[in-house]
Specification:
The complex is a heterodimer. Chain A is mainly α. Chain A is 69% helix and 4% strand. Chain A has two domains: 186 residues, no CATH class; 82 residues, no CATH class. In chain A, helix 2 runs antiparallel to helix 6 and helix 3 packs parallel to helix 6. Chain B has three domains: 242 residues, P-loop containing nucleotide triphosphate hydrolases (Rossmann fold, 3-Layer(aba) Sandwich); 36 residues, no CATH class; 160 residues, P-loop containing nucleotide triphosphate hydrolases (Rossmann fold), CATH 3.40.50. The chains are: A mainly alpha, B alpha/beta.
């Protein structure tokens, strides 16, 4: 019995599935640097571009929308708190930005326009990086990623497997959480996920089982000869899309352009200066 | 290695997990020779799993502890000579008790190839062995399946397939069949025996229920309280039925019957039902059924429906798990939900309990339709309480002590009653944390805590998994009493005897649809379909039929 997982590989044969892991990692690197460095409106365009790329991942709309149930609540404190905090600290610390006023429910709320801008930027950057990473996660088989790291990036296979285990543990932990949540429901336990009691009831058993499972998995790996041979075979050769060299060059060029845009926007200079 | 050559040998072996902890193994002498197929028996907590980990080289190389004595692998004393785990892992393959926690990869075929890749075998050989074992173990159709979508039984089959693909010289298996459906056992066990039967190979296996494949073993070792109590040819050791019963071990029914008929005249244990009947006949005794081998079948009382399911379908993403089910469960039914591993039994049970919302169709409980909020059934609970025992009981524990688990929903129980109730299921310390209990104790605590609530509908997922005979009898007694008091019970199980002794009705699922639904007697009357449905005739019924027929 297993329900659909959000934070894990989705089997498929979409355009993104057919692109090799290293090419996708180059693209992801470009997007992450761009998201951190580029101005807010550029990140808005990037978010739109990622939405446009979603159909090429083969992931259904429901799965694509599910992470937003986490991302949007995360936005709220990021967007609401900085305007208030910046406003409160403006007089004390002399922070930049002017104060604006919002008339709501018959009350006058003062907030920092700079703070609001700052909060929205963080939310947008987080969303771009989150969605881009999920697109890679959904369409990249962890085995291919390991193989790519070992054969192309020449990473020691034991380290590459550490990445693999981290990736496959996410759906396992999600599955464990689902079952525990079923059990709490059936036993009539009411709790809020974000409360201390909810964390104790939901997270502690999942952590306990996950830790024990981690130990058993290590035991099982060693018992099956993991680390015995200096080199490790792979069952299949990596599958590359046609003209992979050309594709990688194009993706690398786009990544460099994105990084260039981020640098040109001056944000990195500001960060370095500050 | 010629047959009879020593592969693994333990001499004067003591082991404790910590220096000041009691010894788990004490003075163990055991040699495994090429050609040996050893059945390791013993009560729960007697040291079997620890002994297997020593044989596989995991103790003390990965699992720490204080070890004294010698462990020889192919003649080399590995406690004196620095022997890496590599030496063990290339010669010895182990299948551990919990199949779920030994899975490492994401898909079935990757999991099978994992060890072969570790040993850096040529790619062609890895693929040939992987493909071969997938076909032999009946897993070809699920080769690309994601491992976390597999049922418990499928995971167990996968763990066995992984070990077989390695073609080990010594195969060690810790309760490898406890989660498999009867058809799965019948399919996998000959493959295990075939691998272990190769020239120079050996096998050591623990199993509670070995009645269906006793003849595949050559030798039995009984371990209790960390010591070897008996070690000898299978027919000689199994002859001591009173000892097996005194240790709380599951004695095959045909062996109990042969012992009841022959008494001390039984000098060699039969290994199959046919052998038992033949042995009794040869002794000049007319086969008959003593009272203990007759059944008082529960009568299916006609009453109104408690649960009504109509057009029920459940899908996770694009994967349909249950398809258009229509059935009802009457009050006081004892329904056994069976079928191949992965047929959707656990999903149906969770849907009946209201934890999963159907994609289509609906459920009515005591005439009231389920309502759902955020994918969960709401209301209903107070009017018609539902109890549920999970396949892995850790999921359901809420409290920090075994006593508090029993008190959940039963605050009226006194300390004395709690101590007695826990003592009955082998838990001596009421204050111990449920997670610190052994697997068997956790399961018994989960069952007992739920049974105490006397719910109107009780759903149990594999309640007797991994239990020895004594504890299995305890669980059965709890269920029988609860049923007699009016609780409607739905049990998912592969234990055919439990079904035959307790259930009033059997429903079989296959690929998410109901393929059979009948009263128990009627269901088992036609044996021809059983294997096709992944089932087997209950041993008690087979014995009754064979004896009456003879």
């Amino acid at each position: 019995m297993a329900q659909e997982v959000v934070l894990g590989y989705h089997d498929g044969d979409s355009v993104l599935h057919r692109i090799d892991p290293l090419t996708k990692l180059i693209a992801l690197l470009g997007v992450i640097v761009f998201a951190i460095g580029a101005p807010i409106d550029y990140n808005g365009w990037m978010l739109l571009a990622l939405f446009a790329a979603a159909p090429f991942s083969g992931v259904d709309l429901k799965t694509f929308l599910r992470p937003w149930s986490v991302l949007i609540p995360l936005w709220v404190p990021f967007i609401l708190l900085p305007p208030v905090l910046f406003h409160l600290q403006r007089g004390l610390l002399g922070l930049a930005g002017d104060t604006a006023h919002l008339h709501l429910f018959g009350q006058d709320f003062a907030y920092s326009r700079y703070g609001l801008n700052y909060g929205v930027k963080i939310a947008a950057r987080g969303s771009v990086i989150g969605i881009a990473s999920l697109l890679v996660l959904w369409t990249t088989h962890p085995r291919d990623l390991v193989q790519s790291m070992v054969q192309e990036l020449r990473a020691p296979y034991k380290y590459a497997w550490a990445v693999f285990l981290a990736l496959i543990y996410v759906p396992i932990v999600q599955h464990e959480t689902q079952i525990r949540s079923h059990a709490l429901h059936i036993r009539g336990v009411r709790y809020r996920r974000l409360s201390l009691r909810g964390l104790r009831l939901l997270a502690i058993p999942v952590i306990f089982r996950s830790l024990r499972r981690g130990f058993s998995t290590a035991l099982s790996m060693e018992a099956r000869g993991f680390g015995v041979a200096p080199q490790r075979a792979f069952r299949h050769d990596l599958h590359y899309p046609p003209h992979v060299g050309l594709l990688r060059a194009a993706v690398a060029l786009v990544a460099v352009l994105l990084i260039g845009v981020a640098i040109a926007s001056g944000r990195f200079a500001v960060m370095a200066h500050s | 290695m010629p047959a009879g050559g020593e592969r693994l040998a333990l001499a004067g072996l003591d082991f404790a997990f910590e220096a000041d902890a009691p010894k788990v193994l004490s003075g163990v002498d055991l040699a495994v020779h090429a050609g040996d197929r050893v059945l390791l028996l013993g009560p729960s907590g007697g040291g079997k799993s620890t002994l297997l980990m020593v044989l596989a080289g995991l103790i003390p190389r990965i699992v720490g502890g204080v070890l004294a004595g010698t462990v020889r692998l192919d003649g080399i004393d590995t406690t004196r000579v620095e022997t890496s785990l590599a030496a063990f892992s290339s010669a010895v393959a182990i299948v551990m008790q919990d199949p779920e926690s030994q899975i490492t990869c994401l898909t079935v075929e990757d999991e099978i190839a994992f060890a072969l890749e570790n040993f850096n075998l040529p790619q062609a050989e890895i693929n040939a062995r992987t493909d071969g074992v997938l076909v032999r173990c009946g897993m070809e159709a699920m080769r690309h399946a994601l491992v976390y979508t597999l049922s418990g039984g499928q995971k167990q089959r996968l763990a066995i397939a992984c070990a077989l693909a390695r073609q080990p010289e010594v195969l060690i298996l810790d309760e490898p069949l406890s989660n498999l459906d009867p058809a799965g056992c019948a399919e996998v066990m000959p493959l295990i025996a075939e691998t272990a039967g190769r020239a120079g190979s050996a096998m050591v296996m623990t199993a509670h229920d070995f009645a269906g494949f006793a003849s595949l073993f050559t030798r039995v070792v009984i371990v209790a309280k960390g010591r070897v109590l008996r070690d000898g040819p299978i027919r000689a050791v199994l002859c001591d039925v009173p000892l097996l019963a005194a240790l709380g071990l599951e004695v095959p029914l045909f062996l109990q019957w042969a012992h009841a008929m022959l008494g001390p005249a039984m000098t060699a244990a039969p290994l199959t039902l046919d052998e038992a009947i033949e042995m009794v006949r040869r002794a000049g005794i007319r086969p008959s059924l003593p009272p203990a081998f007759r059944t008082a079948r529960p009568v299916r009382a006609a009453s109104e429906a408690l649960v009504e399911v109509s057009g029920l379908s459940v899908a996770f993403g694009r994967r349909a798990v249950l398809r258009d089910l229509d059935f009802s469960i009457r009050k006081h039914d004892f329904l056994a939900l069976v079928g191949f591993n992965g047929s959707g039994k656990s999903t149906l049970a969770l849907t009946l309990a209201g934890a999963i919302a159907p994609s289509r169709g609906g459920i009515r409980l005591a005439g009231t339709p389920y309502r759902y909020r955020r994918g969960r059934q709401v209301g209903q609970r107070d009017a018609t309480p539902i109890g549920y025992v999970f396949q892995y009981p850790e999921h359901q524990f809420l409290h920090d002590s075994a006593a508090a688990e029993l008190r959940h929903g039963r605050p009226d129980l006194s300390d004395e009653e709690i101590a007695r109730l826990l003592g009955e299921i082998g838990i001596a310390d009421p204050a111990c944390h449920p997670y610190e209990l052994s697997g068997g104790e956790k399961r018994r605590l989960g069952v007992r805590a739920t049974v105490l609530l006397a719910p109107a509908l009780l759903i149990l997922d594999e309640p007797t998994y991994g239990q020895d005979e004594r504890n299995r009898a305890l669980i059965e007694a709890d269920l029988r009493a609860l049923h007699q008091n009016g609780t409607t019970i739905v049990v998912i199980t592969h234990d055919m005897d439990l079904i035959y002794r307790l259930a009033s009705r059997v429903m079989v699922l296959r690929e998410g649809t109901i393929v059979a639904d009948a009263a128990v007697e009627e269901f088992f009357a036609d044996k021809s379909d059983l294997a096709d449905l992944g089932l087997a005739e209950p041993p008690l019924r087979a014995l009754q039929r064979a004896v009456m027929g003879s």
